[in-house]
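Notebook p. 47: complex prediction with ribulose-5-phosphate.
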Amino acid sequence: MLAIDHGYFQGPTTGLERVDITILPLLPYADTLMLTRGILRSVIPPTYTRGIVLRASGGPSILKELSDEEIALDIEDAIRLNAAALAVQVFIGGPYETRTVHNMTRLVDMGMRYGIATLAVTAVGREMVRDARYMRLACRICAELGATYVKTYYVAEGFDTVTASCPVPIVIAGGKKLPENEALEMAHNAVQQGAAGVDMGRNIFQAESPVAMIQAVRKVVHEGASPREAYDFYLSEKERERGKA
Ligand code: 5RP
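Predicted complex, structure tokens below:
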């Protein structure tokens, strides 16, 4: 999955200022696109026919308490837009924990009526420790309460215990931009330790060559490429892209 929904709380994020220029060339390589209905309607061409995961929660900007979210989408619009899944932040341990859990359970109920999956995104508040213990807690709560699948962060220690204790598939977020070889290694480790895939944003669209990076990530997730193989592929694709410019 390619995540480009960052603008829903942080505005024109680096790399997403011109979605029409930077993201459209990546679409042929994305299995699924995670985005807001605003960008879907205004920028993504109808010729895009792969999966759509619609951002369905929102409210606060980066200037406010991020867990203060509400459901920000009507199920009829999700159907109209042909969403495969609805994405909702769940802030376990956050100031508005209960509300965000209920946002998720309401979306699960709405989605169930029409066969639309729910992706619970475990959002880690500033005050939380990003470790396996926290991720196990957050992912399991989301799964127990009905999420179809869960998006969480990779942790270097004990990520296999997070996937093992979560009965529904897990995909990892990429998080802040890393050097490309490290991001590929993280994706590889996550998949080796039980993740079903990745839902990456910044580590793809902020890469030096986003088109090369998304293909390298595909190699890791779909072809079992090692981090070294994927990085070598990235470097050669990057050169090829540069040659075209
Ligand atoms: C917002 C989200 C983002 O889509 C996602 O976490 C961003 O992906 P990345 O961390 O790889 O940039 O769910 O909270």
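Notes: The chain has eleven helices and ten strands. The mean pLDDT is 96.
Next step: compare against the earlier run before touching the bench.
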